[in-house]
Design a protein that fits this description.
Helix 1 (3-20) crosses helix 4. The protein has seven helices and no strands. The longest helix is centred in the middle third of the chain and has 19 residues, at 54-72. It has helices at 3-20, 28-35, 39-50, 54-72, 77-83, 89-97, 100-105.
Length: 107
C-alpha cells in the first residue's frame, strides 16, 4: 500500500464527514462501509497520520460547525446543537473549549 493511497483514504473520510456530518445515521462504521475500507484500518490511519480517531474527528467537526453557526446565525443554541447533531451542547462545549465557551456564547 502506498502513502498516497493512505492519504486518499484519510481525505475521502474527511470529505465524507464534511458533506454528511449532520446526518443522524452517520457513524464511523457507515463511513468505512461507504469508503470500502475496514473501520479498524480507518482508525489506524487517523491515529497514525492525524493523531486522533475518526470518531473524535467527527465530534470535532460537528463542534466546529456548531460554533460557526453560533457566531454567524441568530439561531438558538438548542436549534444549532440539534442541526449539528451535538448531543449535549453544554457537555461538548465544556469538553472541547472549557468554560470560556460559556462566556463567549452565553451557553
Amino acid at each position: 500500500e502506498t502513502v498516497s493511497l493512505r492519504t486518499k483514504h484519510i481525505k475521502d473520510c474527511e470529505t465524507f464527514i464534511e458533506y454528511n456530518y449532520y446526518r443522524p445515521y452517520l457513524s464511523i462504521q457507515y463511513i468505512s462501509d461507504q469508503l470500502h475500507i475496514s473501520r479498524a484500518y480507518l482508525r489506524n490511519l487517523f491515529v497514525k497520520y492525524k493523531n486522533t480517531t475518526p470518531q473524535q474527528y467527527l465530534i470535532d467537526f460537528r463542534m466546529k460547525k456548531a460554533a460557526d453557526f453560533l457566531v454567524s446565525t441568530e439561531s438558538s443554541v438548542s436549534v444549532i446543537s440539534s442541526d449539528s447533531l451535538v448531543v449535549s451542547t453544554q457537555k461538548l462545549f465544556t469538553l472541547q473549549w472549557g468554560q470560556v465557551s460559556f462566556l463567549v456564547f452565553g451557553v
